[in-house]
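New to this. Look over this protein:
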Amino acid sequence: MNQVTGVVSDIPVLNTKTGKTMYSIVVNGEKFGVGMYAPKCAVGDTVTFQVSMNGQYKNVENKTLVVQAGVPRQAPSAAPSLTSASANSGTFDNRQDTISKQAALNTAIAFAKLAHEAGALPSPTKVKDKLEALDAIVKQYARDFYQFSTGKTLEVPAGDKAVAGLEDDGEWK
């Protein structure tokens, strides 16, 4: 077992498929599993602990995590990120928001397909007009489904076109 000492820069939380919540800490730019109970430290604390390996994963050995007494909390140093620099990755909230956007878009596409099969969509004659109408319908319903599930407004990419005949309240003329 190795001993690690450093400043806690993050405490990631993972909700597993089985409904369990797992905790980790990031110290010196490395992630260490803690287990199902929140660690007894905070971001900025200087900690010391023993490391055990479980396959390729580094874990904090049980009952070895100690917050250094008398050491004031520090602002975490800019440790190397364990995630990509993408704006939609990194924190749980950003990943969850990306998932919510994808789910809203998929739901809107399925809804548009059902509406088409039921004959509830406009029927322009030109292919270009059909595609523009379908694009606008899917984007509008994606906004609606996203707002319904998150309470937030979905910003759609530039080039969004309004559908001729669709009122602001979502009703056809």
